[in-house]
Design brief:
With about 150 residues, the protein is α/β, with parallel strands linked by helices. Helices cover about 50% and strands about 10% of the residues. It is built from eight helices and four strands; from the N terminus they run H-H-E-H-H-E-H-H-E-H-E-H. The protein has helices at about 1-5, 30-40, 50-55, 55-60, 70-75, 85-100, 115-125, 135-150, and strands at about 45, 65-70, 105-110, 125-130. It has a four-stranded parallel sheet. The longest helix has 16 residues, at about 85-100. It is flat, with a radius of gyration of 20 Å.
């Protein structure tokens, strides 16, 4: 993963200097490479049992910045589809979080409920997404329908 995300000498990322991300080629090649290698965030998704089991090895990759836990896919992999509060899913989540935080890595996840968000922050997560765009849209539509319901005939 580092090979694909970083430029030489850290990796073999494809060269595309004439784009917005590279300031349209205005910086020198050396300045661009140094900046990109320093500020490119590398995140891996922990979404199955094998990735949970590999967390120590993953945390040994210096250039890896974030371990993002996908609780939906993880719950499926552990045999509890959609049950992000299942004890086995929570144990895997806590295992990844504990090791990653101890090793100085950032941990992320999607919070879908306020209590879940509070729990994530208390555990040391700092890369948190709030729900998904579709969930927020669905919730807004539900609220609108509920507010309009008394006026329907």
């Amino acid at each position: 993963m580092v090979q694909r995300a970083k430029y030489h000498p850290l990796g073999e990322r494809g060269w595309a200097r004439a784009c917005r991300a590279a300031d349209y080629g205005f910086p020198t090649a050396a300045d661009f490479v140094n900046h990109a290698n320093r500020y490119t965030t590398i995140s891996v998704h922990i979404e199955n049992k094998d990735m949970v089991d590999a967390v120590e090895d993953l945390c040994g990759v210096d250039e890896l910045d974030v371990l993002f836990i996908g609780t939906g896919d993880l719950s499926q992999s552990l045999g509890h589809p959609g049950e992000d509060s299942h004890p086995e899913v929570l144990a895997a989540f806590d295992h990844v979080t504990r090791i990653a935080v101890e090793r100085g890595k950032h941990v992320g996840a999607v919070a879908g409920r306020a209590k879940q968000l509070e729990s994530f922050v208390a555990k040391g997560l700092r890369y948190i997404a709030w729900q998904s765009d579709l969930t927020m849209y669905k919730n807004a539509l539900k609220a609108a329908v509920t507010g309009f319901a008394p006026y329907r005939e």
